[in-house]
């Protein structure tokens, strides 16, 4: 059986205030084309369909379009809710939609009830485990101390119990939305830490042939049978090095797994540039990045004038500007109190300006600071006399 594993669509999300709706629509086109061209038998979507619980109308319309097009192909789709989704909203009409071959799994109580498909080698049971928020599902799974490992382990116990009742040779697939130990995170995933522990061991999925994971945005294989598809688009500059793709998984007659990556369309490459402004503007080696979305980190000791305007002349798609000025190393072992000892309020203020900006105040700015301190001292003196 050939499976197409994807996740983390985050429909409705922007990239540094730039709408990604057209890029997300292009991904849906690519998904449908991949299903058709590669003879996919089932599509797996492992959560975070939307970017937020109440998505914008345009994102809902795109999701509706995706469902209709997948249903028209006659290829079953199994989809779970992620931590960004509203499980209740995403699951509305799941029973009716299921009749069209789109199986939404958003209710934790249904973890042990699979979608069963058949191929020439027999049945394949696909179990959808929606994102399990420990505090909300601990009673459903009867765990005493809510935690990700406890509730996911209990859900997998239900999967294994159901699988034990199936005909011998039944192959199994689990969709889950979780942070599994060994996975590489990026800046764009929402923190799901509970009690200081967010990760669960990959061994929690022992006993099934393939675990199709969602949540982490980088495509990665934790084991041959436990994989993240990653998000189809980059949602932070920390993903500049990602290769965005889906997993095309062939599940053999005895549960053998063979997987290959299918690249997703890239609306615009990402570039993270670092250096002094003049160097970034003049360096010929940076020419390939003129069409990229750019995050520029400026290391100038003094903040340059109009840096964004000057950057966008060469890199018109600069979206993020960060300042990290080069500084002389501070003397080690010297306490803050010792550094301030014997210094006037004026000197301390001037040092602070130099620390924040990279250069001390000019004559006019020193005069402004002096006037401010004189005014404060005069006000304090008036208050003292009035007592």
TrEMBL record:
All copies of the Nuclease SbcCD subunit D C-terminal domain together span: 267-355
Name any one GO molecular function: 3'-5' exonuclease activity
Domain Calcineurin-like phosphoesterase positions: 1-218
One Pfam family name from the record? SbcD_C
- The leader peptide range reads none
Q: How does it assemble?
A: Heterodimer of SbcC and SbcD.
What is this protein's function per UniProt?
Answer: SbcCD cleaves DNA hairpin structures. These structures can inhibit DNA replication and are intermediates in certain DNA recombination reactions. The complex acts as a 3'->5' double strand exonuclease that can open hairpins. It also has a 5' single-strand endonuclease activity.
Query: Which family would the database say this protein is a member of?
Result: Belongs to the SbcD family.
Query: What name does the UniProt record give this protein?
Result: Nuclease SbcCD subunit D
Q: Which organism is it from?
A: Streptomyces echinoruber
Q: What is the lineage of its organism?
A: Bacteria, Bacillati, Actinomycetota, Actinomycetes, Kitasatosporales
């Amino acid at each position: 059986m050939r499976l197409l594993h994807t996740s983390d669509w985050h429909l409705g999300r922007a990239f540094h205030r730039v709408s990604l709706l057209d890029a997300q629509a292009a991904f849906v086109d690519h998904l449908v084309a991949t299903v058709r061209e590669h003879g996919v038998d089932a599509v797996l979507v492992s959560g975070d369909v939307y970017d937020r619980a109440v998505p914008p109308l345009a994102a809902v319309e795109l999701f509706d379009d995706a469902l209709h097009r997948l249903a028209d192909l006659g290829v079953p789709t199994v989809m779970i809710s992620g931590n960004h989704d509203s499980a209740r909203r995403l699951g509305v009409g799941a029973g009716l939609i299921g009749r069209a071959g789109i199986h939404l799994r958003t209710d934790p109580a249904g973890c042990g009830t699979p979608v069963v498909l058949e191929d020439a080698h027999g049945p394949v049971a696909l179990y959808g485990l929606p994102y399990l928020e420990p505090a909300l599902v601990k009673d459903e799974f009867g765990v005493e101390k809510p935690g990700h490992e406890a509730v996911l382990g209990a859900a997998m116990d239900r999967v294994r119990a159901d699988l034990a009742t199936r005909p011998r040779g039944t192959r199994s697939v689990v969709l889950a939305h979780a942070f599994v130990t060994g996975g590489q995170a990026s800046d764009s995933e929402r923190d799901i830490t509970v009690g200081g522990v967010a990760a669960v061991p990959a061994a929690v999925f022992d006993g099934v042939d393939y675990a199709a994971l969602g949540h982490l945005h980088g495509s990665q294989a934790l084991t041959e049978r436990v994989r993240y598809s990653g998000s189809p688009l980059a949602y932070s500059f920390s993903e500049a090095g990602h290769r965005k793709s889906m997993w095309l998984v062939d599940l053999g007659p005895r549960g053998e797994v063979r997987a290959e990556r299918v690249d997703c369309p890239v609306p615009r490459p990402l570039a993270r540039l670092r250096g002094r402004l003049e160097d970034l503007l003049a360096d010929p080696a940076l020419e390939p990045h003129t069409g990229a979305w750019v995050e520029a980190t400026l290391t100038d000791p003094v903040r340059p004038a109009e840096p964004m305007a000057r950057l966008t002349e060469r890199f018109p798609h600069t979206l993020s500007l960060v300042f990290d000025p080069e500084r002389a190393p501070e003397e080690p072992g010297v306490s803050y109190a010792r550094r301030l000892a014997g210094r006037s309020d004026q000197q301390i203020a001037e040092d602070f300006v130099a620390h924040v900006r990279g250069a001390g105040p000019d004559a006019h700015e020193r005069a402004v600071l002096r006037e401010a301190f004189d005014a404060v001292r005069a006000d304090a003196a008036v208050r003292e006399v009035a007592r």
